[in-house]
Specification:
Strand order of the largest sheet: 5-4-1-6-10-7-11
Distance between the termini: 58 Å
Number of domains: 1
Radius of gyration: 19 Å
CATH class: Alpha Beta
Largest sheet: 7 strands, mixed
Mean pLDDT: 91
Number of helices: 8
Helix content: 25-40%
Shape: globular
Strand content: 15-25%
Structural class: alpha/beta
Low-confidence stretches: none
Number of strands: 11
């Protein structure tokens, strides 16, 4: 396995090498757990006045290594999604119809990936507070290890239950993480993981599982608590509060920059 990873990673043995990356943004969820009192799906719900899918895409659009953005959305939502994104991004944009499952949507997006891309980044559209800084950190670890994923280390005491809901075991939280997105992989590693998952009929809840099945290791990158996913209506309220706090924290640095550049 070590020789295979070395071969797959041959184009990235220097951290300063070019690392063209295709960003796959998954926006095909039905949003059954999310209801704003209307008909807006969570991936299109405005957070800070910006639809979630656009906010996620803009973060990847701002990364130098990202060369294209491919969005997989519901077949009935393709035109709406395209209208939200068109003209807002500087990178090449492709919108494709996704599938009934996460794996099917990722597979549909993968078919549109530029063959020249060396890395593939997969991200949930509803995790719309992702930052360029976090994407860069995860990509750097993917270059070093072949695969990396944003994750939050557990801080609560965690229990595993039996089938009747009784505590069966207390887990060691020091080694437990909540895995999120972005998740970034060497392109050929990801393709191999997708191929075998489809061949074996393996449904996965995240993309790391596909490469783990082949024996590859994935580096976890601490992303903090702000990289939340819009799943329930309350999550949108929390996201708005996080954005306001970010704006408040950024204000002093912005004011200093304005003064240094002679702007009032």
């Amino acid at each position: 396995m070590g020789k295979l990873l070395s071969f797959l990673n041959s184009a990235a043995d220097a951290l300063t090498a070019k690392r063209p990356t295709s960003a796959l943004i998954l926006a095909a969820g039905s949003g059954e757990r999310f209801s704003d009192g209307g008909t807006v799906k969570k991936q299109f719900f405005p957070v800070g006045g910006v639809p979630a899918v656009l906010r996620s895409a803009l973060a990847f659009d701002g990364c130098d290594d990202v060369t294209e953005i491919i969005v997989a959305t519901g077949e009935e939502d393709v035109e709406e999604c395209r209208s939200i994104l068109d003209g807002k991004l500087t990178k090449k944009l492709t919108v494709v119809p996704g599938g009934a499952t996460r794996r099917e949507s990722a597979a549909a997006a993968l078919k549109a990936v530029d063959p020249e891309s060396k890395y593939i980044a997969v991200h949930d559209a509803a995790r719309c507070l992702v930052t360029e800084e976090l994407i860069g950190k995860v990509l750097l670890e993917a270059v070093r290890h072949g695969a990396a994923a944003a994750a939050e280390k557990a801080t609560d005491t965690l229990k595993r239950s039996d089938s009747s809901g009784l505590i069966a075991e207390t887990l060691d939280r020091e080694s437990v993480w909540m895995v999120k997105t972005p998740q970034i992989f060497l392109a050929n590693m990801y393709r191999a993981g997708m191929y075998t998952a489809i061949k074996d009929g393996a449904e996965v809840t995240d993309d790391c599982m596909m490469v783990e099945r082949l024996g590859f290791k994935v580096k976890l990158v601490e992303c903090g608590r702000e990289n939340i996913k819009i799943t329930y209506p309350a999550d949108a309220v929390i996201a708005e509060a996080i954005l306001k706090d970010r704006e408040k924290r950024a204000a002093p640095a912005r004011e200093k920059s304005d003064k240094e550049n002679g702007r009032k």
